[in-house]
Amino acid sequence: MSKVSLTGIKPTGDVHIGNYFGAIKPALRLAETYEARYFIADYHALNTVKNRDELVQNIRSVAASWLAAGLDPNRVIFYRQSSIPETFELSTILMCFTAKGLMNRAHAYKAAVQANLEKGEDPDAGINMGLYTYPVLMAADILLFDTHVVPVGKDQVQHVEMAQDIAQALNYNYKKDLLVIPQALIQEEVAVVPGLDGRKMSKSYNNTIPLFVPEKQLRKLIMRIVTNSQTVEEPKDPDKCQIFALYKLFATAEEQAQLAQRYRAGGMGWGEAKEALFQVMNRELTPIRERYEAYMANPAELDRILAEGAEKARAIARQTIQRLRRAIGIEW
Ligand code: ADP
Ligand code: TRP
Question: What is the pLDDT of residues 266-297, one digit of tens each?
């Protein structure tokens, strides 16, 4: 096992079960086939989170979430971006190999400019250099660890391609494979997890079930799932029901077959289906929630785990930076 995978996690807000099935679980599975590294992109978050306490809270919460979901810090490397000063040195080096025009084409920057133009404002109104150079910092995160694959959602593919361009520009200049060219690994099609209203579960739709809600609230949220007006007697189609779609994520094959049978036979009301969903969901989420709460109650332990990860990560980062410093003529 020698290929490296690297996952960057932006600490913004609470995770929901859509993130859990769509991003966290698939990313954690990579540890079976790659030398997996996971880091909290806290300096990237500074672009959007400018409240101190909120940033601290987000960093701890996202760290606790991934640990609770099964990240094993003894098997993989888990650290904070901000603990690796070499990231920022590499970022400075990469700046000198990054075409300004490349940054002009970044989706996030272009969208911000477009929004300004639509409002009749100056194109760069409210856009800071953190947003503009975001792809360079992300390239540094990736290239510092000789990363082969970066698991990402579709929105991040462009950023990985930019990391490729920047690495190639540097390698070309020194006529040497100094940096590994990373590849985006688009998550295999995970089923879209539906939200309370039947649309895709998303923070932007306000229809989420957060991963760590207390039991009572979990039941309340499930009871709020929107259903149609079929009567109790009517037979129901499990494949056209978001309660069942959620049930499938948590229930055993046997449980699924049984509930599907209840749907088709008629005589089952939505309340009963929701109660069945609550039971299986709560069964899987309870231990995760308890682990999460234990970590959140013990920030010193979280900090210790992240500091240990940072030690391991820095040992690698120092080597990469030394290799580059020598190659570019800063060290000899
Ligand atoms: P949100 O839409 O709530 O803002 P994000 O865009 O932050 O979620 O998503 C983070 C990750 O979680 C992405 O990799 C995305 O593919 C995954 N994800 C988010 N919502 C879902 C969902 N409803 N079903 C499956 N995966 C999801
Ligand atoms: N930009 C990513 C996001 O918004 C987070 C991130 C930062 C990242 N650095 C990374 C992801 C390096 C993968 C590799 O989700």
Answer: 999 999 999 999 999 999 999 999 999 999 99
Residues in the chain: 332
pLDDT at 186 over 90: no
Cβ(11) – ligand 2 distance below 6 Å: no
Residue 76 in contact with residue 34, Cβ under 8 Å?
no
3-class DSSP state for residue 46? Answer: coil
Q: Does the C-beta of 156 come closer than 6 Å to ligand 2?
A: yes
- Between CA 174 and CA 159 the distance in angstroms is 23
CB-neighbour burial class of residue 175 (10 A; exposed 0-12, middle 13-18, buried 19+): exposed
Beta strand spans in the chain (E): 4-9, 35-40, 77-80, 149-152, 183-186
Geometric angle at alpha carbon 44, from 38 and 50, rounded to 5°? 130
Please check whether residue 243 is in contact with residue 270, taking contact to mean a CB–CB distance below 8 angstroms.
Answer: yes
203 part of the active site = yes
Q: What is the pTM of this model?
A: 0.92
